[in-house]
Amino acid sequence: MLRGIPIVNVERCLACGACAYACPVDAVSIQYTNDKAILTFNYARCIRCTYCRDKCPVGAIDITDRYGIVADSVENLYGKFEILLAKCSQCENALTHSERALSTVREKTPIENVLCQRCKIEKLGKNIPWMRT
């Protein structure tokens, strides 16, 4: 059975990095900036094992029917996918979840209560008298 190259559905991707961690040949990498995550697939290095697809917790990676890679430049040997990140409602730092993925959180929790890990710890520390802040 032939497997094609992987592509990412950026609407579903959480930017968690599970695909990069699962890749046995380091063909997948993820880099975070202030407002987005950039998921890069090195198609020349990819061995088409589909571990990235199998380990994705939300099924955001699909395998295409495109098997061979023909590129006129080195840049075309890479698949780059940009995932917009949600921001902490207190400090405005980016969270590692896309805006789309937070829609389920918003339904259960008002968006002003979505905090990054640092702000959660800081807020919790103010409510516990024995903890130093």
What does this structure look like?
- By secondary structure, the chain is α+β, with helices and mostly antiparallel strands.
- The chain folds into 2 domains: 80 residues, Alpha-Beta Plaits (2-Layer Sandwich); 42 residues, no CATH class.
- The strands form 2 sheets. A 4-stranded antiparallel sheet has the order 2-3-5-6.
- The model has no long low-confidence stretch (mean pLDDT 78).
Secondary structure blueprint with pairings:
Elements: E1 6-8, H1 18-22, E2 28-32, E3 36-42, H2 51-55, E4 61-63, E5 78-87, E6 94-98, H3 103-108, H4 117-127
Short description:
This protein has 133 residues and is an alpha+beta fold.
Features:
four-stranded antiparallel sheet, 25% strand, 133 residues, 6 strands, elongated, alpha+beta, Alpha-Beta Plaits, two-stranded antiparallel sheet
**Terminal residue distance:** 57 Å
Strand arrangement across the biggest beta sheet: 2-3-5-6
How is the main sheet built? Answer: 4 strands, antiparallel
Mean pLDDT: 78
Q: What is the 3D shape?
A: elongated
Structural class: alpha+beta
The CATH class of the largest domain is identified as Alpha Beta
* Proportion in helices: 10-25%
* Radius of gyration, whole Å: 18 Å
**Number of beta strands:** 6
SSE topology string = EHEEHEEEHH
Q: How many helices?
A: 4
